[in-house]
Design brief:
Keywords: Copper. It comes from Mesonia profundi. This is SCO family protein. There is one protein chain. It contains 6 helices and 11 strands. The two termini are 35 Å apart. The protein has 2 domains: 30 residues, no CATH class; 175 residues, 3-Layer(aba) Sandwich (Glutaredoxin), CATH 3.40.30.10. Strands 1, 4, 5, 6, 9, 10 and 11 form a 7-stranded mixed β-sheet that branches. With 206 residues, it is α+β, with helices and mostly antiparallel strands.
Length: 206
């Protein structure tokens, strides 16, 4: 049986020369990703009591979520899935995660530290962040366009998106395109197929 990949590359060399091979291979192996928007500047406190800003993520690919530690509905599953993503890229210093608490009055650094230990947060670039509620809500709703709100009629008194955002090394929110050529924008943190897409797109950006 012929090796058609080898034949194809040989044909490229014959027609274009060796200089064209890396460029053409990259074109077929690396999908184009959409630019959704720039992440606004932020400054919050992590589970270790350290101030974390955009600069701490500069040069890193990272995933963003909005959650709270007392969430009785989707947050536990979201973070179980985030742990799987962490484990996939464990040991890579250019990968990180940012988890913003939407209940900062309760989620102090000490509470976030205990939550991180409970779920198995093990990479230094996973920051669970707390600060002023107004600033966190603005970052979610306007900066990322990921909905969060206080709602006394909901379990846990909050409602929020279960989607993850993917950010590149320059602080730009990125995503793949769907089958119709539209950006998906975000990745469902509860959906197995979306999580697989996210893993692939992280690798692409890295």
């Amino acid at each position: 049986m012929k090796n058609y990949s080898y034949v194809g590359i040989s044909l490229v060399i014959l027609i274009f020369g060796t200089w064209a091979v890396p460029k053409i291979i990259a074109q077929f192996s690396t999908p184009t990703m959409a630019e959704i928007g720039k992440v606004p500047n932020f400054s919050f406190t992590n589970q270790d009591g350290k101030t974390i800003t955009n600069e701490d993520y500069k040069g890193k690919v990272y995933v963003v979520e909005f959650f709270f530690t007392t969430c009785p509905t989707i947050c536990p599953k979201m973070n179980e899935n985030m742990i799987k993503i962490q484990d996939e890229f464990y040991g890579n210093p250019n990968f990180g995660i940012a988890s913003f608490s939407i209940y900062p009055e309760h989620d102090t650094p000490e509470v976030l530290k205990a939550y991180a230990d409970k779920y198995g947060v093990a990479i230094p670039n996973w920051h669970m962040l707390t600060g002023e509620r107004e600033a966190i809500f603005e970052l979610a709703n306007k900066g990322f366009n990921l909905y969060v709100a206080e709602n006394d009629e909901m379990d846990g008194n909050f409602e929020h998106s279960g989607y993850f955002a993917l950010v590149d090394q320059e602080g730009v929110i990125r995503s793949r395109y769907d089958d119709f050529g539209n950006p998906i924008a975000f990745y469902n943190g509860l959906d197995k197929s979306d999580l697989e897409k996210l893993r692939k797109d992280i690798k692409n950006l890295l």
